[in-house]
Design goal:
- The complex is a heterodimer of chains A (429) and B (163).
- In chain A, helix 6 packs across helix 9.
- Chain A contains 17 helices and 9 strands.
- The radius of gyration of chain A is 22 Å and the shape is globular.
- Chain A folds into 3 domains: 25-235, 3-Layer(aba) Sandwich (Rossmann fold), CATH 3.40.50.11540; 237-329, Ubiquitin-like (UB roll), CATH 3.10.20; 334-422, NADH-ubiquinone oxidoreductase 51kDa subunit, iron-sulphur binding domain (de novo design (two linked rop proteins)), CATH 1.20.1440.230.
- Chain A starts with 24 loop residues before the first helix and ends in a 7-residue tail after the last helix.
- Chain A is α/β, with parallel strands linked by helices and 429 residues long.
- In chain A, a hairpin with a 5-residue loop joins strand 5 (246-253) and strand 6 (259-264).
- Chain B is built from 7 helices and 4 strands.
- Chain B folds into 2 domains: 4-63, Arc Repressor Mutant, subunit A (Orthogonal Bundle), CATH 1.10.10; 75-162, Glutaredoxin, CATH 3.40.30.10.
- The longest helix of chain B is centred in the last third of the chain and has 20 residues, at 143-162.
- Chain B has a 4-stranded mixed β-sheet with strand order 2-1-3-4, covered by helices on one side.
- In chain B, a hairpin with a 2-residue loop joins strand 3 (131-133) and strand 4.
- In chain B, helix 3 packs across helix 4 (54-61).
- With 163 residues, chain B is α+β, with helices and mostly antiparallel strands.
- Chain B has helices at 4-15, 24-35, 40-50, 54-61, 83-87, 90-101, 143-162; strands at 75-80, 114-119, 131-133, 136-138.
- Classes of the chains: A alpha/beta (429), B alpha+beta (163).
- At the A-B interface, strand 3, strand 5, strand 9 and helix 13 of A face helix 2 and helix 5 of B.
Chain lengths: 429, 163
């Protein structure tokens, strides 16, 4: 295995990454930070900004991969005021920790991205929604927001223009569903964080019925470099034709060097695993991986060289999701792993709709029995049909929960059946 | 009963936003910092400050896993049991902690120092297995590391008491 230095790939979001400390405002500025703000605020029209972001091909990093410019443009021109930006730093999907890394590396990248998004949709206030286990991120952001205010980048009359925009940090009380965009809006308003089924979409009627854009913090951090360097530069960063930019891939599981790596969008899974994550941990062989967090479908040896971009991962039958790669080895029982994932989703269901509230414990129970030697052949079709029902739920949590179960049945049905035949988990000695 | 000083602090917090109930979680977290948990009286007084009914606030209190409706220990230990920590032996972390403290999951030690709870992925999967104590994260846990952390917290607590 050849060792490759990380500097060989262009670092955009992590350009100021240093061991154990955050980049200061001055360091951010010296590396081109806030140049985009100076370039566009008071000079570019919202339409010009949206065109630039559109041409860059920036897709949302929060899981759904929705084009950022399309979301911004869906704010109606005659929409009411005040308007809001909500930056989603909830990040509770197992395997995902890139947003924490990003905030700890270069908090002003997120702040500048939010201000630019705010300018584009004429918003006056931004919220950064932070989960309880990221208290350190919340504290960093509050301190750096103050620094941005003092430097004139945030607050009243930004850079002497008539654009005013301020940002506050909102601390969550914890729960995975709060990361779902519409549940997040309820959480911000101090209501019970159940999702709200669109339409109307949040960009039409969001916080207090006003237009609101919800973006992932990684999405927002990509905005300043695109506006500074242009859309073509951004597209050229990607490894694969048709994709754009870099991606923060989080790698965890049975690897030597778990971590978060900024790599060209479309870097091959094999390369991410072997070059950056240090390969499989000693004594373990590769078996499968979840390419984009807990709610994505397993990929296997057959997909070892898949290009990790939105289209290629979708073509392989899964989703790039958040780019959180969880690697499983040949000695880990995937029935037990999926049981664990299903327990997570069942516990985190908001309980609002029946398919999810009742269906997830049912799935969990079937998987538990199979794992503990009480499975029957009939359970396999029962699992399949229950997964189908979950797609009728009120929000995307339940279909997300069904996905790894479907992946287990698609690629590892034999392993499930082996549990049933042997009446025990074949991985337990 | 909330002290007048605390109520003043909370009123200040609430006044910062346009809509009082935006701060519902913040207010409850602040009260917990001083009083440990949300008692029935605290719920009623907080609801009044926020312009909500106690029932509306209860809807939130019972939803969020960082809001406590019953007393918890001075240190709340949350052990991650999601996929990556599970793969890295979260069960042995649970076993070690519960036998060290002599309590089961969800229980509080008789001296009121420690409560142990399960928690979903903490976002520190690169340092699995992980746990969080109050607001601090501890990763790459081993039995020795857990012993060290607990010993330090016990010392800190007896120091606080002597103060
Ligand atoms: C159950 C659930 C949890 C989610 N959690 C998060 C999250 O923690 N962070 C996030 O950015 N997006 C999360 N999303 C996706 C959001 O709904 C939304 O698509 C995203 O924040 C939009 O940002 P983007 O367009 O920049 O990707 C979640 C979705 C679902 C269904
Ligand atoms: S699918 Fe689950 S999380 Fe989503 S609304 Fe229904 S119960 Fe709530
Ligand atoms: S799975 Fe434990 S911190 Fe993510």
């Amino acid at each position: 295995m050849t060792r490759v230095k990380l500097v060989e790939t262009p670092q955009v979001l992590f350009r100021n990454r240093r061991p154990n400390r955050i980049a200061t405002l001055e360091e951010y500025r010296q590396s081109g930070g806030y140049e985009a703000l100076v370039k566009v605020v008071g000079r570019w029209s919202p339409a010009e900004i949206c065109r630039c972001i559109d041409e860059s091909g920036l897709k949302g990093r929060g899981g759904a991969g929705f084009p950022a410019s399309k979301k911004w443009m869906s704010v109606p021109a005659d929409g009411a005021y005040p308007r809001y930006i909500a930056a989603n730093a909830d990040e509770m999907e197992p395997g995902t920790f890139k947003d924490r890394m990003l905030i700890h590396v270069d908090p002003h990248a997120v702040i500048e991205g939010m201000i630019l998004a705010g300018y584009t949709i004429s918003a006056s206030k931004g919220y950064i929604f932070v989960r309880p286990s990221y208290e350190s991120s919340a504290a960093i952001l509050e301190q750096e927001l103050e620094n941005a205010r003092r430097a004139g980048y945030l607050g009243e009359n930004i850079l002497g223009t008539d654009f005013s925009f301020d940002i506050v940090v909102h601390r969550s009380g914890g729960r995975y569903i709060c990361g779902e965009a519409t549940a997040l809006l309820n959480a911000l308003m101090g209501k019970r964080p159940n999702p709200i089924k669109p339409p109307p979409f949040p960009t039409v009627k969001g916080l207090w019925d006003r237009p609101t854009v919800v973006n992932n913090v990684e999405t927002l951090a990509n905005v300043p470099p695109i506006l500074r360097n242009g859309p073509q530069w951004y597209r050229n960063l990607a490894e694969t034709e048709g994709s754009a930019g870099t991606k923060l891939y989080c790698v965890s599981g049975r690897v030597n060097n778990p971590g978060c790596f900024e790599l060209p969008m479309g870097t091959r899974f094999s390369e991410i695993l072997e070059r950056y994550a240090g390969g499989m941990a000693p004594g373990y062989a590769f078996k499968a991986f979840l390419p984009g967090g807990a709610s994505t479908c397993f990929l296997t040896k057959a997909h070892y060289h898949v290009a990790m971009d939105f289209d290629a991962v979708a073509a392989a039958g899964s989703r790039l999701g958040t780019g959180a790669v969880i690697v499983f080895d040949d000695r880990t029982c995937l029935v037990a792993a999926v049981l664990n994932l299903t327990e997570f989703f069942a516990r985190e269901s908001c309980g609002w709709c029946t398919p999810c509230r009742e269906g997830l414990p049912y799935l969990r129970d079937l998987l538990w029995r199979i794992e503990h030697g009480e499975g029957k052949e009939a359970f396999i079709p029962m699992l399949r049909s229950m997964c189908k029902h979950l797609w009728n739920a009120y929000c995307a949590l339940a279909p997300g929960a069904a996905t790894p179960v479907e992946g287990l049945l698609k690629h590892f049905e034999d392993e499930v059946r082996e549990h049933i035949i042997q009446k025990r988990c074949p991985f337990k000695v | 009963m909330l002290s007048d000083a605390l109520k003043e602090t909370l009123r200040g917090k609430i006044a910062q936003g346009e809509h009082p109930r935006e701060h519902a979680v913040d207010v409850m977290l602040e009260i917990q910092k001083r009083c440990g948990y949300m008692s029935d009286e605290a719920m009623e007084e907080a609801a009044t400050l926020l312009g909500m009914s106690p029932l509306e606030l209860e809807e939130l209190a019972t939803f969020y896993d960082h809001i406590y409706r019953e007393p918890v220990g001075k240190y709340v230990i949350r052990v991650c049991d999601s996929a990556v920590c599970w793969m890295h032996g979260h069960l042995s972390v649970v076993d070690h902690l519960t036998s060290l403290l002599g309590i089961g999951m969800g229980e509080t030690t008789p001296d009121g120092l420690f409560t142990v709870l399960p928690v979903c992925c903490l976002g520190y999967c690169d340092r699995a297995p992980a746990m969080m104590i109050n607001q601090r994260i501890f990763g790459q846990l081993t039995p020795e590391k857990i012993d060290r952390v607990i010993r330090r917290l016990r010392e800190e607590a007896s120091f606080d008491e002597a103060e």
